[in-house]
Amino acid sequence: MGSAPATAQEMRRAQRADGPAAVLGIGTANPPTCLAQDDYPDYYFRVTNSEHLTDLKGKLTRICNKSGIKQRYIHLNEDLLAANPDFADRTRPSLDARVDIASAAVPELAAAAAAKAIAEWGRPATDITHLVFSTYSGARAPSADRRLASLLGLRPTVSRTILNLHGCYGGGRSLQLAKELAENNRGARVLVACSEITLIAFYGPEGGCADNILGQALFGDGAGAVIVGADPVAPVERPLFEMAFASQTTIPETEDAISMQINKGGMEYHISNQVPRLLGCNVERCLVDAFRALGVSAAWNDLFWAIHPGGRAILDHIEGVLGLDDSKLAASRHVLSEFGNMSGTTVIFVLDELRRRRAAMAMQGGEAPEWGVMMAFGPGITIETMVLHAPSNLDLKGN
Ligand SMILES: CCCCCCCCCCCCCCCCCC(=O)SCCNC(=O)CCNC(=O)[C@H](O)C(C)(C)COP(=O)(O)OP(=O)(O)OC[C@H]1O[C@@H](n2cnc3c(N)ncnc32)[C@H](O)[C@@H]1OP(=O)(O)O
């Protein structure tokens, strides 16, 4: 073997990266149709021919008013819904048609986000070695990761993984997987792509189904992409956030609090009204454990924050239990306001917004915190926690 490492341990060590995984590029995309939150109750009850359900419309209006959301983007616009009237009725067998549309639209939206992330990264798409794709709209094989690889012209040797139905923690899980892949495979460059399109779960209002009314008020469509790699090659590659530590925690006895299930009429879901409280009671323990594992003690207000804005009340609870200053969750609140809850994709939008805000602050001579936290939540209830470090050569461009 000439000068090759002599032992299996040495071989293993040679395969590992030296430094921590880092975010090297971020991109986001939304479908073109944008709906104002103030107009949504009128729109939804009109396009589903449900104007007579005035109580439910009142409920949707009350939730919209308290949602902290200004607008959302959707793929299923009025024309597409008119061409697929069964989508408005959960009892009709419409899954085939939904999957047909989603199978094309989900990877295409992901490709739009990925193209931006790759452009910022600065290297050719053929240098990507791994792809981690997350969506709740996948119900077919070969799936969206395979199609995205074709759309981007990735190499046939790219290692693909698809995560399905992780819901709102899909972005956090994908980034954790990307960290493991990048740190354990020297030279690996991982494309993380999350793409969520609500048409799989859109249907008309029904009495007794508050979950649907809540979903109609909160969710929107979007895709986010991140390039992750260790040991960046200067000057082309510049780390935006280094991934210092990552963990996943499941809150005991909360299996039924958030659920999703694919049925013949589309995806049904349940979101307990206890979710904000349950998260509020558990996030601090995850944070304490994460910083203890790093051997660091942190004052919460000295950190930057990228929290998944699952709903306004979730952000309020977390802000309250951690005693965070008003400005600390500004990136999460901004993304919630401009895009709604795009499930697993949302946390990537928050990272993008955060780096933009940090760059603006640096341009004005201000100093942003060096250390921060990303958290995402979903069915389980699952909490994804990642401690981030922002190097001083933070990207000043934004995207
Ligand atoms: C544009 C396109 C749209 C298309 C949409 C199609 C849908 C697609 C869906 C895709 C599904 C994917 C789902 C799974 C992903 C899960 C991951 C998550 O993030 S998990 C999601 C994580 N997100 C969350 O868990 C949401 C967190 N919650 C919140 O942010 C707030 O509670 C709020 C904004 C909903 C209301 O503000 P707040 O200050 O609390 O105001 P108030 O106290 O005054 O109550 C007002 C009304 O709200 C009611 N209500 C409250 N909760 C629920 C509920 N769970 N349930 C039902 N209703 C609920 C309450 O009963 C009251 O009704 P009423 O008495 O007036 O009749």
TrEMBL record:
Active-site residues per Swiss-Prot or TrEMBL entry: C168
Taxonomic lineage: Eukaryota, Viridiplantae, Streptophyta, Embryophyta, Tracheophyta
Domain Chalcone/stilbene synthase C-terminal: 242-390
CDD domains: CHS_like (cd00831)
Domain Chalcone/stilbene synthase N-terminal: 9-232
Transmembrane region(s): none
This protein's name: Uncharacterized protein
Keywords: Acyltransferase, Transferase
Gene Ontology MF annotations: acyltransferase activity, transferring groups other than amino-acyl groups
Organism: Sorghum bicolor
Family, similarity comment: Belongs to the thiolase-like superfamily. Chalcone/stilbene synthases family.
